[in-house]
Amino acid sequence: MTGFQVTEVQKALKGADYPMDGPALAELAKSNGAGDDLVQALQGLREVEGPNGVMKELKGELGGSTDD
């Protein structure tokens, strides 16, 4: 599986109203035109408080810098 770019995740979650859980994040990403693999990865996330939480949850699947 190829990693997701940070900018790809940010674009997919544009307009997110945190806190949000995985199914809600996946639905938002889908409506924002995200690819099926990203939507599927988001689906399994627990509730996160903001974008940094999403990045931490996806850490193993991100490509590029996460500035962690």
UniProtKB/TrEMBL annotation:
InterPro entries: DUF2795. Pfam families: DUF2795 (PF11387). This is DUF2795 domain-containing protein.
